[in-house]
Amino acid sequence: MKQLMKGNHALAEAAIRAGCRFFAGYPITPQSEILEYFSWRMPEAGGSFAQTSSEIEGINQVLGAAAAGQRAITSSSGPGFTLKQEGISYMQSLEVPAVIVDVMRYGIGLGDIFYGQGDYFQATKGGGHGGYLLPVYAPSSVQENADLVALAFDTAEKYRSPVIVLSDAAIGQMCGSVELPEMKEFDIDRFEWALKGRDRHYPQGRTLTDRMYYDFGYDEYDKHERDRYDAMKENEQLWEEVQAEDAEVILVSYGISSRICKEAVKAARAEGLRLGLIRAITVWPFPTKAFQKYNGKASAYMTVEMSQMGQMAEDAFIAAHCQTPVYSMPTGRDVADSEDIIANVKDILAGRKEAF
Amino acid sequence: MHKEFVFAGFGGQGVLTAGMVLAYTGAAKDYDVTWIPSYGTEMRGGTANCTVKLSDEEIANPFYKRPDILVAMNKPSLLKFMDSVKKGGSIIVNSTIIHEMPEVEGVDIHMVPVSDIAAGLGNARSANLCALGAAVAVAEDIISIDDAADGISGYFTKIKDNGSNIAVLKAGYAAVKQPSADV
Amino acid sequence: MAMTKKIPDTIKGANTFCPGCGHGVVVRLIAEALEELGHADDAICAVAVGCSCLVNVALGIDKIGCPHGRASACAAGIKRVRPGNLVFSYQGDGDSLSIGLAETVYSAQRNEKFTQIIVNNGVFGMTGGQASPCTLIGQKTTTTVDGRSVNMSGVPLDIMKMFGQIESVAYLARGSVHDAQNILNTKRYIKKAFEAQMAGAGFSCVEILSPCPTNWHMEPVDSMERIAGVVSAYYPIGEIVTGGGLNA
Q1: Which of B61, B85, C18, C143 is 20 to 30 A removed from C193 (C-alpha atoms)?
Q2: Of C30, C47, C59, which is closest to residue A204 (Cα–Cα)?
Q3: Is A202 on the interface with C (CB under 8 A)?
């Protein structure tokens, strides 16, 4: 049954239904509805909720809860997401599966609570120290806020990796009709590696620490990490194509910006302009497989995103493999306008726009 | 079928709620629905608005662009949005507080004293629902007044008897349908 | 009657602490307390960074290596999802009272129902003996080369005083490992803290004064005498809160 829900609420409810039974976090706009929703819903579902003293304490409580085998989640935005990075790096070194939500807002420093997509680099390039990677899902609707948070838990456990859901203020604040997933429950003891007290598998107890120390030698460790990331790249790419097959120019976008791109594709087609769209659903791994289909065939790619200089544009440039030129349309604090998108595309075709 | 609504007014006039009731009604009818509020720095100055879109296809852009229907509860909102209304579209004007209506070419103007109507029915706080009823009167190809009444009952589940709210909704509808009626 | 030397099964093997370090004694006391209370099999330890992380090779129970200063937050998360397990953090004073002070104080403030073990030796040991929040006035370290001054660094931090203001705390004690009597008392404190936790009474903490001959640049015996003298004079030993918390 479909129901009308706010994006942030749909995400929180879907997490509960995906079997998540632990949340710890801190208020910050525009993600606070997630925290507020969990504050009553988590105890109702038999889970535990903590409003912590900071995002740092929040992510570390999640680290503990997830290491003990519970499906656990935290959420934040802007500067709060920065404070999560230390914990995310540790989660990846301990290989602890958990879900971190970033409801992106605009700007560096304090920035503004307005819509933004400026955390792309931080989310997709290993925002904490040491050079790790992790799957990042970018919902573009209330429905995907629900679907992708549930998928994020499955992916996290599949690879024993933290996973980010990179939502944004528009998707979080808007309401839409949503079909919620079925309620699931998980046995907290289902993982052999998870903390539970010593047992026949670990008669001297588990030592769940940086896996480099006890589980691998230093030499084996690099390969182990490379293999994990390679497997994610091979298996987890998700994207949606809109009329890309015969497109002269293919837009590349994600999240709220991609919705405007869809409108632009429709409007362009109505006036005979063959425009298409690749919408990244995983922004890491970046959907390079979609590009492989169109590299050398399409005349141009154009990325559309809410950042100042273009961030996804760099990934599109790499994915285009110098076979198709890439153009960038960063819209900064403004949500893109479909007429501007079409004007930019016409500039590309007329040779008036500089390539990225 | 695709309809774009903007509800705009002072904070406290219930424009976000009126839009939510419409969105709820649309979702119950299995339309794709988006509701997105004015937000952040847009909120400064005490005005609020929301955009609601209903469609039998996937809605791409949730933001307002060329609304079919504008509900303007105060003058600043009217001035802000009236030129964006689609040709052939409609503006519902809260004529209780907006007495002069500028010319807008190709758009139907409905002067509805929504605050007076709601007050006259002893439910002054639901002027927003009166405006919603008026909006439904110009959007009947996508939503009926009975759907909207069901929407009120379904949305305000904490209110035991929505009879008075529905009466105000229907009075707003009637004010557009029979503008000569004495209200 | 012949004396038998019994090593708790929960001790994995020889530890890797420096000669004369107090950590080894504390780890042994924890192992004995867990076994005597019947909780060695369900215990989970949130291990701090620094010298504390050497408990990974010493203690044969489930452990997690936590980010700098965050062990109490991790312990809280573990305890919240596994309330039936005995959960404790094992942290130094640098870790728990400097970078991790917010996590430490708020674990107590929020009445997180695990036990925090703080081994207080007044220096950052693993990083080479820099000043910690508990470095005493006049004490020379690599970052207080002329001795800690009140003017530059304020007075040493007393976590028991901070915790003592929080009415919901279940059990608080400060022990020491500088002589046999204090070692026995400290073991009793650890057991009482664990018991308070398993009774669901609330947050519990045992701070333990411990020598660091390496970074104090002292002989082990002299280090013990320093605790008996100047350290315990500033940080009084004994129980601060008993029978507190929800069962009070």
Answers
A1: C18
A2: C59
A3: yes
